[in-house]
Write a structure and sequence with these properties.
With 280 residues, this protein is mostly helical. It has one domain. Helix content is 78%, strand content 0%. The longest helix is centred in the first third of the chain and has 25 residues, at 2-26.
Length: 280
């Protein structure tokens, strides 16, 4: 029961990033570049504090650090700018569906054995994303916002693939956050930031400290106790939670197009994961 509650809390934290970002931008409380920079910086600070409390040897620099920092910054910046035009639910679906596609592509490139049901599930999930993003009428999401969120998904997917071999996930995450700060500040410098408001700062710092820093740390705590299939299936709940939050807190409407795409994406991923679990 404790493991279930901790896992559920982590998924709520992941979904809350979408809700907080969308809420901050919709109200004009902060611009996307400032949100991303504050999120990365505050997340780096709390993760550095967690690493310092462990009182263990910590490697700040490694050969994978540049790639980790770049892909993390790509995720953070693309995520924030995408929510200028995307709803919380649609953004979360594109993000987590895209991440799964990237992870599947990584498995193919590394020549891992792919079962027929895994391939079928990935094809269904990809078809769901295509259905959601296909430009036909007002039901389709904004193409620029969808493209930015797909960039965020690619960044997060590659970042996850890089981190699969980590022996110190929390330490590596803290280091990647630290090195991603200058990249987020660079994005801030090349845009036109709006005046910051206390509400916008509070939402960005909450996203960075609680939902990202502490949320990721909690995820890495429970992750070793979950099978790969269970961990992946748990993440399928994030778009659903984001949709509920968007409807309840932001007054967002959920279209039939989104519901069909959700069923295809989440169902396809679930098919591939069930196969994986049975094989094991």
């Amino acid at each position: 029961m404790k493991l279930f509650l901790l896992t559920s809390l982590t998924m709520v934290a992941f979904a809350a990033n979408s809700i907080l970002n969308r809420f901050a931008l919709a109200d004009g409380a902060i611009d996307p570049a400032s949100f991303a920079a504050l999120r990365v910086a505050s997340g780096a600070l709390v993760l550095w504090g967690l690493v310092a409390l462990r009182r263990r040897e910590w490697t700040l620099w490694s050969a994978t650090r540049p790639a980790g920092a770049i892909t993390l910054a790509t995720y953070m910046i693309g995520f924030s700018f995408a929510y200028i035009s995307l709803g919380a639910a649609v953004g979360a679906l594109i993000l987590f569906g895209g991440v799964q596609v990237v992870m599947f592509a990584g498995a193919l490139l590394s020549r891992q054995r792919i079962g027929s049901l895994q391939a079928l599930g990935a094809a269904i999930a990809f078809g769901g994303l295509v259905w959601l993003l296909w430009p036909s009428g007002g039901a389709a999401p904004d193409l620029l916002g969808a493209g930015l969120m797909l960039a965020a998904a690619i960044g997060w997917g590659i970042y996850s693939l890089i981190g699969r071999g980590s022996t110190d996930p929390t330490g590596d995450t803290a280091a990647n956050f630290i090195f991603a700060v200058p990249l987020a500040l660079l994005a801030l410098c090349v845009t036109l930031p709006a005046p910051l408001t206390p509400t916008g700062i509070a939402l960005a710092v909450t996203s960075g400290v609680v939902m990202s820093g502490l949320g990721y740390a909690l995820w890495y705590t429970v992750l070793p106790r979950l099978s790969s299939a269970t961990a992946a299936i748990a993440q399928l709940s994030v778009p659903v939670i984001a949709a509920l939050g968007g409807i309840t807190l932001l007054g967002e409407a959920v279209s039939l197009r989104f519901l069909v795409a959700s069923a295809l994406v989440l169902g396809g991923i679930a098919i591939s994961l069930v196969r994986k679990r049975q094989a094991r």
